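Worked Example 4.2. Consider the chain below.
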Amino acid sequence: MTAELVRGQNHPLSQVRLEIRISAGVPVLAGATLGDEHGRVRGPQWVAHPGAAALPGVEVPRHAAAEHRLVVDLAALPEAVHRLGVFLALPTSTTGPLRFGAVPAPHTTVSGPDGTELVSYTLTGLDAEAAVTALELYRKQGAWKVRAMGQGYAGGLSALLADQGLEVAGDLAATAQDAATDSLSQAAPAPTPGGDPRGVAPSDPLAAVAVDAHTAVPPAPQTAVAPGAAEPARSHGSQSPEGEPDAAGTPHAAQATPAREPQPPGGSVDYTHPRRAHRAPTQPPPPSPLTPAAGEQPARPVAGDAVGWSMEERLYNQVWGMFEDLARTTAAYRSAVDFADSRLEKELDQVLADPRARLGTTSEAAREAAHARRAQLVDQARAVLDRDLAQLTAEAEVVEPALPPACARWDQPVWHARRPPAEPPIALRLGDIHLPESVPLRIPLLVRLPLERGLWIDSGPMTTADGVMRDSAELRHLAMETAVALAARLLAVHPPGAFAVRVVDPAGAGAQALLPLTRSGVLAAPPAAGAAGVTRVLEDLTRRVDLVEMAVRAGAAGSLPADVDTARQLLIVHDFPHGFDDRAVTRLRYLADEGPAVGVHLLLVADREDAAAYGPLLDPLWRSLLRLTPLPGEHLADPWVGHAWTYEPSRIPVGSRILPEVLAEVARALPKYE
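Applying the procedure from the previous section yields the following structure tokens:
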């Protein structure tokens, strides 16, 4: 499956022989730069361009075109090469557009030698830039990755090469532009009498694409655009079927080309891609949901504005769309800050490189200017992040009150109007997650039901955000309260009798926290105490797992013994491994691995250090469980963009009576256990 990157996002490369395809919609020249461990291009011999299209391990096109194919063999690159940048530049000696903001957003794909697409990236958010670094392939800890860059330069190709430390950037850029101009002039012969009225031969491939001469503007002064500083988070609700919107929000789908009026002889050529929607330059693109036009308010979000067969499923998909938007916009912001920091470091190194300029007012002014440019880039990126956070916050304000009880906070009114459900829910709320850049915004942490893996509430030592170490006994009590709240939620959102909770508390240390469950009578049996109680409960559940597995494999689910409870089971284990011998530990691992598939789920409340005596024997157990904490902790990591999310448990509000009220209602509806 192709990974669609956003600006600043990286992705590992599983192959070293690659094919990079570029679709720009207008003729552009494409090339590649090789950089050392510091990203510096050591000389012209490290740049592949139309005038010198081949380097060891790199082959780029020899002409300017709307479609390009680059071939890269990372294994054949020189040992000193640690980075490979793929750049695009608009030809300067043509009547075509001189800025990427006047053309469709270029689209890039990286494929393996068999044609399998690995990643793709659309370069949105470009404006006055005449050259741009589209992708960067870099080596890290012996493995290769690709990063979506989108770093543009209004100063053109010479500014791009100079920013990578090339001393002869101007001469090399001129050579590449001359080669591209020669290829374009050979591809577009002079008009002949009786030929096409636009002055282009009918067989010329350039006749199939067009351009408005008014889009050509002179290049602006040299500026570098930080990755992620101008790209908004894409709304999950505005994805096109093809999934590739361009800079104006128009999908890259094949569309009927609008009729174009013939141009008078001698007029300029329109380079707009014939299969992309054409918009006159005087008509501004419609604003996206996260980028309202000046003076306009963004569209008010609507609860359930996502795909799904039911409102519950649409809300679930909308919540995860909000998670993806927050992850994407934060990744872009962090990438922009990293770019600003690296650029500042490079500029300060250049100031210090000349011993004669280290002292005096000239050096001080250069340093102040470098810091000012860094602050400007960060401020621009923060403004984009704040805009996206405001929109996501507005969406959260309408989504949160619409969530069903299984996904709602305990303080929501929906809990007071709850009735015993007829069907189990599709998802369960475990708590909330957020990132440091978006502390006020909380995204519900939802997991699909039935649970595919067990849960582990870590009662070990923790340091709070203010640096205070919490007492061990207090943490154990808070962890057990968190487990009780989760168990109560599961009981309340399942049909009566469809879910049962069993508790193992060998030393009775969790009796106080378990009072809401024991007093209400919702437990399938009293909490098991002592080693004998642990053995009895584990034997019962192991037998249930074995019998159900055999019945399912034999297609005889209705032939289970009468004493086998077919309801889904949640086993809460407190103070593990107290009261567990080797045989009990083996059974617990078996339940953690095999139980979820047949309706037996594990909720472990434990400090991992207490089980350190077992050594690596229990490592598979801890890895199979989703770790939660009784206090906010920055420990949930997603492999998509690599963020470390802060998790906050879903706790009962202080002084609220909602938990005993809900459990009392559950107990009234439950069948009585004999």
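The two ends are 52 Å apart (CA to CA). The longest helix spans residues 311-353. Compare this with Example 4.1 before moving on.
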